[in-house]
Amino acid sequence: MSDGVSETILEVRDLKKYFPIRRGLLRRVVGQVKAVDGVSFSIRRGETLALVGESGCGKTTAARCILRAYVPTAGAIRFKVEGREVDLAGLRRRELRPLRRHIQMVFQDPYSSLNPRMVVGDIIGEPLLINGMSDAAARRRRVAELMELVQLPAAYYNRFPHAFSGGQRQRIGIARALSLNPSLIVADEPVSALDVSVQAQILNLMLDLQDQLGLTYLFVAHDLSVVKHVSDRVAVMYVGRIVELAETEALFDRPLHPYTEALLSAAPTPVPGAVSNRIVLEREIADPANPPPGCAFHPRCRYAIDICRNVLPELQEAEPGRLVACHRAKELALAGVGSAEHVVA
Amino acid sequence: MAEPILSVRDLKTQFFGPEGVVRAVDGVDFDVFEGRTLGVVGESGCGKSVTARSVLGIVDRPGRVVGGSIMLRPAKGGPAVDLAKLSNEEMRRYRGPEIALVFQEPMASFSQHYTIGNQISEGIKLHMGLDERAAKKRAIELLDMVGVPQPARRVDDYPFQLSGGLRQRVMIAMALSCDPRVLIADEPTTALDVTTQAQILDLLRSLQAQRGLAIILITHDMGVIAEMAHDVSVMYLGRAVESGSVQEIFNRPQHPYTRALLKSIPTVLAKPRTRLPTIAGSIPHPFNRPRGCAYHPRCAEMIGAVCAGAEPPPVDTPDGRQVRCFLHGGREAAEAEMAGAKA
Q1: Residue in B224, B263, B266 nearest the CB of A229
Q2: Is B44 helix (H, G, I), strand (E, B) or coil?
Q3: CB < 8 Å to B276, chain A
Q4: A341 pLDDT more than 90
Q5: What is the predicted pLDDT for the residue at A275?
Q6: What are B184-217's pLDDT values in tens digits?
Q7: Which of A13, A181, A221, B251 could in theory staple to A76 by disulfide, Cβ–Cβ 3.0 to 4.6 A?
Q8: pLDDT, tens digit, for every residue of B17-37?
Q9: Main-chain phi, psi angles of A85, to 5 degrees
Q10: Do the chains contact at A339 and B251, CB–CB below 8 Å?
Q11: Does residue A280 sit at the B interface (CB-CB below 8 Å)?
Q12: Which of B172, B171, B97, B174 is nearest to B129 (CA)?
């Protein structure tokens, strides 16, 4: 997938999204929640970039800024579309409307994201109708094509969402997202509400569709094991910032940031007795309204030294294609989890 | 091995709705031992949570336990008590001091109108006969034990003032307040972040080591099971399809469902961008429970008519586990019976 030659389709530079904290009768602003605080990354055509982190790290906020569901506080979101480059961050609603078809979203919860009063065919066909495909027969043909693509029987066209299982609903959501041939799909936790046996089906479907249609995914997730199965590159976020960005295999084999190491170590694996050398982090995730000085991870970091408590580490290139924001990245040798052909019997 | 603290046999819990009867738990057997963790794992609708609630006698209406026994060996000795036969009033004496529950959603399980200290000491006053001050002192000790920082100050906090991880610690403190011997943890870490999950699992393990707690851990997460359980019961649509030691279940799964489930889990150890083996279809709705073995429509190793026609009986295998699958026994008897029914 990511062979280095494909062009950059999306470039996010120093993206910030602050939410004001208001208090009192006059709703005066007394502080800011820095949900996303200077995030930069790029996505190449045809690849999957995963944005991972725990709750409150800003991964969903960053994704919503790219979709322009939020107006970013600062930064640039340069998106290549129709042969030109536009900065989505600065556009007004009216200017955004014709561009929205190019970035589509797959939602987390397949139960609340489908209109219960519409039949499946209409749910999938709605974006087509809105974007000017007024010929009902043509629309029906395209919907049938999309349903086949996500492996839903065309006979289900006239059924309502409640008749479907969680996995089938997620297929409907994916079909709808694909209807306008978007150049980027933002998937926010697309499998976290599904049962394990169904999760695998949807992950495989997303991989297959990517190969078939050359899709580009921004995959937002908290589950590192899911991320390993779908992504080419991974960006790890902690309290509003990217702390590490690398190719998937490199990141899992040899993390460069202590937070990545701890996350990998905390991920449960289906191997009995594998837990012996787990790193259990002390304390809790920092509050993005009041992050600690220096590196936001330092109060929980077992490698923290003086500089970590005072100076914010910048995200820098540690090796070709690898970025890390840690003062001690060069001297630490951190443990990864490796990659095995067969994990369970 | 020692005698089990809790022995469940042929437990059946059904829900009586206007559209029919749902057999949520349909003949489940298990034993729970002191100082050991039984992991009950399965996907949605398999009956794992209803099993937990049945043991505690808190199945929501219109459901009720309709059959089987739940034998508890009391701490003070004497004959075992069948919890399934107790009235609600009698059951109260066992809930708390003998068996306690940790719920999945700490936010939804606390009252928002009382401080956590209030909520912890309520049970202590009731079951242990302590007065207000002594109960609060014990609440502070419990908070300290489960690793809540500054317990003397935190005891006066309301649940909304705590983070998810702290709330789950408080929930565990509350469950342990009357010194139960059996702790049922229903998806205790599902709502938590992975680093917080590691903290809570660590806490449960150390509490078990200190107090010899018997734990029933209910989860959908095979990774959590591998890490925590000594014994495992894999459930599918109301039945335990395979039970055995954690090593046996993970290293040599026997039931086709266990095998398929283990293969379909994404893991951090896999090669990047690999397709996962999947289980065909989806879990049937409980009203459309398939005849015969409930798993047969999705089973890759189905033998034939017998799987669709008869329910596989529990078979004890030589390596000490129990499997409900005709691949492992019971086929001849079932086929003879089916032939007899036809004739």
Answers
A1: B266
A2: coil
A3: 200, 203-204, 229
A4: no
A5: 65
A6: 999 998 888 888 889 899 999 999 999 999 999 9
A7: A13
A8: 888 899 999 999 999 999 999
A9: -115, 130
A10: no
A11: yes
A12: B97
